[in-house]
Specification:
The structure holds two protein chains of two kinds. Chain A is mainly beta. In chain A, 0% of the residues lie in helices and 51% in strands. In chain A, the strands form three sheets. In chain A, strands 2, 5, 6, 10, 11 and 12 form a six-stranded mixed sheet that branches. Chain A is globular and about 40 Å long. In chain B, the strands form two sheets. In chain B, strands 2, 4, 5, 6, 9, 10 and 11 form a seven-stranded mixed sheet that branches. A four-stranded antiparallel sheet of chain B has the order 1-3-8-7, with no helix packed on it. Chain B is globular, with a radius of gyration of 14 Å. The relative contact order of chain B is 0.32. The chains are: A mainly beta, B mainly beta. Chains A and B meet through strand 5, strand 6, strand 10 and strand 11 of A and strand 4, strand 5 and strand 9 of B.
């Protein structure tokens, strides 16, 4: 079974609009972490935001927020007020003890911000 | 500056010619990992290491070797590269999470090595 699912291979959003990138995960471990990374065309992996399984509140980091729905096992990334520089690949990842603390990545979503 | 370095950044080689991609981190991290990235497949783990002399296979270990003789270094070895190993490779490191809240420690990635095997 796929551990991390990102069902949107590509997304378009108008500049200054908000966009949600979907991520669902599969784990039986009660303690896990969820991460989002951004990969611009230059190739580097940039850490954006983290959500812990025991966190009571949704994580936020500037224009990034994580819509965490534990019962549905989803951890969607919300980018508010999109900017042209947000055009990139976005990866959802999970870390838990079931997988030896490995980071398991989804296939990614390519976001294109339109002027 | 905390960082993960990889060398070389770009490499074009031929089938069967052994090569090594080096990876080094200066953060005293226990955990190191190698990934390959291919279009539509995301990042797939090749090998990982929880500490010195401790390595284990990830999802796609065939055709690769690793070693962890020192905490800071984790080289990736391709003994006999083949064209299907053409890919973008990332090394990453992180702290070992010994308690649940340490799961929030992110992985730090190297800049990537773009390998082409002809």
């Amino acid at each position: 079974a796929q551990k991390i699912t990102q069902t949107q291979p590509g997304m378009f959003v108008q500049e200054k609009e908000a966009v949600t990138l979907d991520c669902t995960y599969d784990t039986s471990d009660p303690s896990y972490g969820l991460f989002w990374y951004k990969q611009p065309s230059s190739g580097e992996m940039i850490f954006l935001i983290y959500q812990g399984s025991y966190d009571q509140q949704n994580a936020t980091e500037g224009r990034y927020s994580l819509n965490f729905q534990k019962a549905r096992k989803s951890a969607n990334l919300v980018i508010s007020a999109s900017q042209l520089g947000d055009s990139a690949m976005y990866f959802c990842a999970m870390r838990d003890d079931n997988y030896g603390q490995n980071f398991v990545f989804g296939p990614g979503t390519r976001l294109s911000v339109l002027p | 500056e905390a960082q993960v370095t990889q060398n070389p950044r770009y490499l074009i080689t031929v089938t069967g010619k052994k090569l090594t991609v080096t990876c080094s981190q200066n953060m005293n991290h226990e955990y190191m990992s190698w990934y390959r990235q291919d279009p539509g497949l995301g990042l797939r783990q090749i090998y990982y290491s929880m500490n010195v002399e401790v390595t284990d296979k990830g999802d796609v270990p065939e055709g690769y070797k690793v070693s962890r003789k020192e905490k800071r270094n984790f080289p990736l070895i391709l003994e006999s590269p083949s064209p299907n190993q053409t890919s973008l490779y990332f090394c990453a490191s992180s702290l070992e999470a010994t308690v649940p809240w340490e799961m929030s420690d992110t992985q730090y990635f190297g800049p990537g090595t773009r390998l082409t095997v002809l």
